[in-house]
Design brief:
The complex is a heterodimer of chains A (112) and B (113). Chain A is mainly β. Helix content of chain A is 0%, strand content 55%. In chain A, strands 2, 4, 5, 9, 10 and 11 form a 6-stranded mixed sheet that branches. A 5-stranded antiparallel sheet of chain A has the order 1-3-8-7-6, with no helix packed on it. Chain B is mainly β. Helices cover 0% and strands 50% of the residues of chain B. Chain B has no helices and 11 strands. In chain B, the strands form 2 sheets. In chain B, strands 2, 4, 5, 6, 9, 10 and 11 form a 7-stranded mixed sheet that branches. Chain B has a 4-stranded antiparallel sheet with strand order 1-3-8-7, with no helix packed on it. In chain B, strand 9 and strand 10 form a beta hairpin. Chain B is globular, with a radius of gyration of 13 Å. The N and C termini of chain B lie far apart (36 Å). The chains are: A mainly beta (112), B mainly beta (113). Chains A and B meet through strand 4, strand 5 and strand 10 of A and strand 4, strand 5 and strand 10 of B.
Chain lengths: 112, 113
């Protein structure tokens, strides 16, 4: 079983619409969550990180974290075709190794 | 923004031969990582490296794998000998200390025949 589970597996939203992506860790010993975006054939690039309960907003992107349920979600408003990509959620533990445990990802397609 | 470089971008090699994957991390970063991504599967942690030592490695980091960064040059992943199941894209990443963002390179696609 994946330790970091993401849903949905794929998502299609219209241009200008809202995309909502979910991620849950089954490992209770995680402290940090990261959202990376990976365009086809490219390297993952970090979009947002969240370490505390609550919400964080940066431009069109909002991330939520519920530490009790180890669930995080990423919301993209006013989605653009350039947002079409694989979105990877990763979790890590406090400490000095920094190992990221990734989920399988959600493939987002924004249709013009 | 900061960039991690990887050389080569593609490598095709016969099973049993040795291969070295090279990574040029962000200049002031102190932590270095290798991840493995097989098409359609999740990105998986292999190893991380700090101050000349392996800090943590996963079960995927077999005895045939080794890493080093001699004298601040490339951070390398060596596989000797290679096996068919080593075919994957290998991503290098680097980060400063603490819960900071890991910057990923563009990956090396390794094909073992």
């Amino acid at each position: 079983q994946q330790k970091v589970q993401q849903s949905p597996e794929s998502l299609i939203v219209p241009e200008g619409g809202m995309a909502s992506l979910n991620c849950t860790s089954s490992d209770r010993n995680v402290d940090y969550f990261w959202w990376y975006r990976q365009h086809s054939g490219k390297s993952p690039k970090m979009l947002m990180s969240i370490f505390s309960n609550g919400e964080k907003e940066e431009g069109r992107f909002t991330v939520h974290l519920n530490k009790a349920s180890l669930h995080t979600s990423l919301h993209i408003r006013d989605s653009q075709p350039s947002d079409s990509a694989l979105y990877l959620c990763a979790a890590s533990k406090a400490g000095n190794t920094g190992k990221l445990i990734f989920g399988l990802g959600t493939t987002l397609q924004v249709q013009p | 923004g900061p960039k991690v470089l990887q050389i080569p971008s593609h490598q095709i090699i016969d099973m049993g031969q040795m291969v070295t994957l090279n990574c040029d991390p962000v200049s002031n970063h102190l932590y270095f990582y290798w991840y493995k991504q097989i098409l359609g599967q999740q990105m998986e942690f292999l190893v991380n490296f700090y101050n000349g030592k392996v800090m943590e490695k996963s079960k995927l980091f077999k005895d045939q794998f080794s890493v080093e960064r001699p004298d601040g040059s490339y951070f390398t992943l060596k596989i000797q000998p290679t096996a068919l199941e080593d075919s994957a894209v290998y991503f290098c990443a680097s980060s400063p200390p603490g819960p900071y963002e890991q910057y990923f390179g563009p990956g090396t696609r390794l094909t073992v025949l």
